[in-house]
Amino acid sequence: MLAQVWHSGLAVQDYWVSEKYDGVRGYWDGHRLISRGGQVIAVPAWFTEGWPATPLDGELWAGRGAFSHAQSTTRQTQAGDAAWRRMRFMVFDLPAAAGSFDQRLPQLRAVVAAIGQDWVQAAPQWRVVSEAELQRQLAKVVAAGGEGLVLHKAAAPYRAGRSGDLLKLKPYDDAEGQVVGYKPGKGQWQGQTGALLLQTREGLRFALGAGLTAELRRQPPPLGAWVTYRYQGLHDSGLPRFARFLRLREDMGPGSPP
C-alpha cells in the first residue's frame, strides 16, 4: 500500500492514526525483507529469526531524525550487527489477512507479540474525533522530531498501490523525482552542478537546485537515481512550488516506481 496526501474535510473518525516513520519501507514476504523498490534487504540472520511465514508490511526505522542511518544500513550487503541493533521494524499491516483494517489490527498485534523481539513492534494506532485534534496530534509529533502522521481507513481491505485508504499528513508536501539530466552551475557554482533536472511520476520535468549541498553539486546523483524533494503546493501547470531537495533515495534503484 502507498499513501496519498490527506486533505481537509475528510471524516477523521473513519481512520486509524499513527506516526509516519522516517525510515525505509520493508515488506516481509515470509522469507525475505524486500524494499519498496523491490530489492532484497540483507539483514543479519538474528534480525528475522523466528519471524512467521505470514507477510508483514512495515518500516525499518532507526528513530526520529535518523533516516540516513536507516538508509545506509539497509543498503549495505553486509551491515554490521552494531548498525542493525539500532534498527526497529515497525509493523503496520498484514497484507495476506482478510477483512478490514479494524479486523486486521488485532491480528497484527497478536502476530507481533508472538514474535517476541524488542526490535519488532506493532506501530501504535489511535483514533481522533475531530480534524482539530488531528492537527494537534500532528503538531505534537513534529515538535518531538517526527515527520508527520499516517491515516489508515478502518473499513479498508489491504490493497496494493496508491489509494485513499492510506493517507499521509505532514507540515509540507513531498514527492519523489527521477534524475534525467543536469543544469550547469553559475557564479559560485561555476563548473559544478547548478540544478538537477527531475522527472515526476506524472512525466513532468523541472529543475531542482535549492537545497543541494556543495558535495552534491560536485558529485550529483547519477542519471536514473530517485530523490525526494519538498514543496509548497502546485502551480497550475502541475509543477511544484518552492521545491527544495530533501534527500537521495538510495533505497529506490534506477527504474524503480516512485
Polypeptide structure, described:
With about 260 residues, the chain is an alpha+beta fold. Helices cover about 20% and strands about 30% of the residues. The chain has six helices and 14 strands. The protein has helices spanning about 45-50, 65-75, 80-85, 100-115, 130-145, 215-220; strands spanning about 1-5, 15-20, 25-30, 35, 55-60, 90-95, 120, 150-155, 160-170, 175-185, 195-200, 205-210, 225-230, 245-250. The chain has a five-stranded mixed sheet with strand order 4-3-5-6-7. The chain has a five-stranded antiparallel sheet with strand order 12-11-10-13-14. A hairpin with a 4-residue loop joins β11 (about 195-200) and β12 (about 205-210). The model has no long low-confidence stretch (mean pLDDT about 90).
Succession of helices and strands: EEEEHEHHEHEHEEEEEHEE
Helix content: 10-25%
Largest sheet: 5 strands, mixed
Number of DSSP-assigned strands: 14
Cα shape: globular
| Structural class assignment | alpha+beta
Q: Report the uncertain regions.
A: none
Arrangement of strands in the largest sheet = 4-3-5-6-7
| Mean residue pLDDT | 90
